[in-house]
Fold YkgJ family cysteine cluster protein.
Amino acid sequence: MLFARHHKDKRHGLLLDHPLDDPSCCRECAALCCRSFPNVDLTWEEYLRLEELGATRLHFSLYGPHKLIIENGCEFLDGNRCGIYEGRPAICRRFFCRPAPD
């Protein structure tokens, strides 16, 4: 075979109403949520905290939410794990994904 087929699992993302810490499905994941979106919204407090942690891909906004640019992978990824897990933004705490229905 000239080109190998790559099987890609389809995932369904959910933004929960409450934080979800350490779900078992995330332990084996390749940090898809941290690699699949262009950015995440931040509060002013989160923006300042990430700035203190050395974030270089922050977007300051006068008119809407501030953002952390995560396109092509969040700068805080350490392998496939969050390097700031305890201090990650609220939107990251509330995101959950599961296999998409067929």
